[in-house]
Amino acid sequence: MTSAAPPHPDPADGTVPPPAAHLVHDDAEALALAEELADRFRPGAAGRDARRELPRAELDALSASGLLAVSVPAAYGGAGVRHTTLARVFRTLASADASLAQIPQSHFVYVNVLRARGTEEQRRFFFGEVLAGRRFGNAQSEAGTKHVQDIRTRLLVRDDGSFVLDGVKQYSTGALYAHWIPVLAKGDDEELYVAYVPHDAPGVSVVDDWDGMGQRTTASGTVRLTGVVVPADRVVPHHLTFRGPQLHGAVAQLLHAAIDAGIAAGALEEAAGFVRTTSRPWFESGVERAVDDPLLVQRFGELSLRVRSADALLAEAARAVDRAEADLTDDTAAEASLAVAAAKVVAAEAAVETGSALFEVAGTRAALDSLNLHRHWRDARTHTLHDPARWKVQHLGRWALSRIRPPRHGLL
Fold it and tell me: What is the per-residue pLDDT for 150?
């Protein structure tokens, strides 16, 4: 794999000009646009995955639709949609193309970082960028460290007050397609900061070396940062986010849960369509059509319960986040984190089970590689490795038994 820049650079400055972005006005419009785009993206999803065709045109369409700006607060010109709406948008997109839905997850996370800790000037500038159609990626995770929060990338202050950034990041979903790459780094004080760096800044190299078995077109590869100079007004003190009640982790995990719920729903729908049009009944069933086989009907009912449970918990989690945002306290933040944890566990289980059961209910023909029906399971199995569900169950158990609030960090 080779280093790559975003498509269609502007010859004047080497950056990617944003699409002419539509301004979304409210929650209803955001939901309608998500449905419209999902219908548009769904027919090509299997082919893009099979050939690993990077969805540049689809991402440009997503930017142009205005959906990537729907969480910008109304005070800055955005729609400021509820989290119930944002979760449904991600669930809808993921049901059509899980990779495409995963790419902007970090975009919304780092919009939230600005909402929480950005200065007024930073908010005005970056929210304007987002409203114009520009995308955030991420350079967050690192390989070879002690654990996921052992950040080795350094953001060191220079004599003139600016910073210099050095490090290597992996699993950088969205960075290849981004106009801005938010980089998680530690400063001279060993605290966490986010530096917002242009994709084409000197010293930044984005390498398309992602070869995951699922989520194949997310381009979640490597970002190398060598002596990258960052102005002071592009740095946000992220560590302050966790000094009090916060929703940073809950919102990030809510979007992951929505992606899992969408994968489950998409797999179930494709399985049902295959059985209706292609599958044959088992000879012992005594029926003429596969859809009338009582054992298949039973299994589809069980899978439907899984998907409905995931959707119900996702909706409740989103409502809990909205309630907490309206009245943020230690208690409401804990309630939101626990509700999201429950949704994430069940949605992950539903995605993996439904993606696998697709073959059980659809039969031998479904295993043809040319149909690429296995992408649902591959996407689910890959995406659900993002962080361990067993720790979410631990936090739910600690709360149920001892009323111990979940910790404040970005993965809960």
Answer: 87
pTM listed for this prediction: 0.94
The CA-atom distances, in angstroms, between 353 and each of 46, 236, 263, 272 are 19, 40, 11, 15
Which of the four pLDDT bands, split at 50, 70 and 90, describes residue 19?
A: low
Q: 20 pLDDT band (50/70/90 cuts)?
A: confident
How does pLDDT run across 119-134, given as a tens digit for each residue? Answer: 999 999 999 999 999 9
Query: Which are the contacts of 84, defined by CB distance < 8 A and separation ≥ 6?
Result: 315, 318, 319, 322
Q: How confident is the model at residue 194 (pLDDT cuts 50, 70, 90)?
A: very high
Q: H/E/C letters for each residue in the chain?
A: CCECCCCCCCCCCCCCCCCCCCCCCCHHHHHHHHHHHHHHHHHHHHHHHHHCCCCHHHHHHHHHHCHHHCCCCHHHCCCCCCHHHHHHHHHHHHHHCHHHHHCCHHHHHHHHHHHHHCCHHHHHHHHHHHHCCCCECCECCCCCCCCCCCCCCEEEECCCCCEEEEEEECCCCCHHHCCEEEEEEEECCCCEEEEEEECCCCCEEEECCCCCCCCCCCCCCEEEEEEEEECHHHEECHHHHHHCCCCHHHHHHHHHHHHHHHHHHHHHHHHHHHHHHCCCCCHHHCCCCHHHCHHHHHHHHHHHHHHHHHHHHHHHHHHHHHHHHHCCCHHHHHHHHHHHHHHHHHHHHHHHHHHHHHHHHHCHHHHCHHHCCCHHHHHHHHHCCCCCHHHHHHHHHHHHHHCCCCCCCCCC
pLDDT per residue over 278-305, tens digit each?
A: 999 999 999 999 999 999 999 999 999 9
Structure tokens that stand for 183 in this block: 């980089």
Beta-carbon contacts of residue 265 (< 8 Å; ≥ 6 apart): 91, 95, 307, 311
Closest CA to 50 of 216, 274, 266: 216
Q: What percent of the chain is modeled with pLDDT above 90?
A: 92
